[in-house]
Amino acid sequence: MLKVISCTLSVALLCGACRQKKNAVLAPEYLYEVKNQKPICSLIDNKKGNILMLYGNDVALRAANYPVTKQLPGAYYTLVTWKQKQMPGWYGTNMNGQIYTVETLKISQVAAGPLKSDYQFVPGGAYASTVARPDRNERIRFIIDQRAAVLP
After folding, report:
1. pLDDT in tens for each of the 152 residues of the chain?
2. Exposed end of the chain (fewer CB within 10 Å): N or C?
3. CA dist 71 → 31, 131, 132 (Å)
4. pTM for this model (two decimals)
């Protein structure tokens, strides 16, 4: 009788262990794909409830590594801002929610002329239509002033 019970229990445990586990899946609606760009830095603004991530091409990354603010022709930046939301299962921790805004900045130069800043502002799904758009020159200065994060 003991052998029957132990065999039945072993088979039941073996069958129970063979069930597929559900793995965590990233929520693609909260991600933003930047092609051929690398992360430069990230910022968290808890007062406004935003998470910001600045991406850039190789030229922008090189400019962000200078110790002082420097604009280089050919630099292309993408600043993505998300609204924060509670991270499920982690009390007191926030994660990126819906996209709030996407801002792009391209620095160019024609011949020996002055540098030209091509700035675009695209509101996301979480952006309220009653909120005034930010000042173009302030945002350009904000993006260019960001220094690259130091990675170990």
Report:
1. 677 676 676 666 666 666 665 565 555 556 788 888 999 999 998 898 899 999 999 999 999 998 877 888 999 999 999 988 877 777 777 788 888 999 999 999 888 888 899 999 999 888 887 788 889 999 999 999 999 988 66
2. C
3. 28, 30, 27
4. 0.76
Q: Retrieve residue 44's tokens.
A: 């968290």
Q: Which two tokens stand for residue 43?
A: 């910022």
Sign for the CA dihedral angle at 11, 13, 16, 19 comes to negative
Q: Please enumerate in sequence order all residues whose Cβ is within 8 A of that of 124, keeping only pairs 6 or more positions apart, or say none.
A: 81, 98, 99, 100, 101, 102
Amino acid, single-letter form, for residue 149: A
Q: From the DSSP assignment, how many helices (H) and strands (E) are in the chain?
A: 3, 5
Residue type present at position 27: A
CA distance 29 to 21: 23
Rounded CA separation 117/56 (Å): 15
Terminal alpha carbon distance of the chain: 62
Are 41 and 57 spatial neighbours (Cβ–Cβ below 8 Å)? Answer: no
**Cα distance between residue 61 and residue 107, in whole Å:** 13
